[in-house]
Amino acid sequence: xxxxxxxxxxxxxxxxxxxxxxxxxxxxxxxxxxxxxxxxxxxxxxxxxxxxxxxxxxxxxxxxxxxxxxxxxxxxxxxxxxxxxxxxxxxxxxxxxxxxxxxxxxxxxxxxxxxxxxxxxxxxxxxxxxxxxxxxxxxxxxxxxxxxxxxxxxxxxxxxxxxxxxxxxxxxxxxxxxxxxxxxxxxxxxxxxxxxxxxxxxxxxxxxxxxxxxxxxxxxxxxxxxxxxxxxxxxxxxxxxxxxxxxxxxxxxxxxxxxxxxxxxxxxxxxxxxxxx
Length: 277
Prior knowledge:
The chain is of the alpha/beta class.
């Protein structure tokens, strides 16, 4: 595996999202000091790194919660400046965070449309929402849910994750970012969620999978982006890498004793910061 410029596969689809030299400071703390990312339609890109490497900050910048202080973001080949989450959603960027943001006292349909309910006049269009929710779940081959009108409180961890992911693709999404989707799941539920992640990519979406689990990463990811202390250590094709090489990049920022270079650009890091989020 090399840490040279990321080589796209032959006849690869154009990137949905590109981040080039992204930087984010919080006062004197340099949380992101030159990060790069390519997410392609029909592919799962794993975003990995140790605690404090900058994964959470990076996805929040992409989602418009923070915004990058410097660097370039391209969405479907066009430069963009994402200033808030609503703008990111309108572009087709959806994020499923670890807490899932589901309401236990609401059913699956109302959770999927939470905050973006369909209306008929001044009333909720329950029939349209139910039909659309059922359509999306069916398109993702979700068969573990007994009824789309059951309350989320009655669902297992894997089923709750499925509902959160289905909500993310409900809105004509182009890029879905999943933050540790299997962290709290058992073996069987993890396998169900990973199959769902793969189906998202097979349906043509670009998927970014944030994970610490190398088994999950190597099972579903087409590419792996490694962050180390707020920088991109490498972005590689999964088939061209090994677990040991990726783990070495995560823990030291280099592989085979060679210093890691930013994978997609030649940005020069700023002065060292500490504790990137």
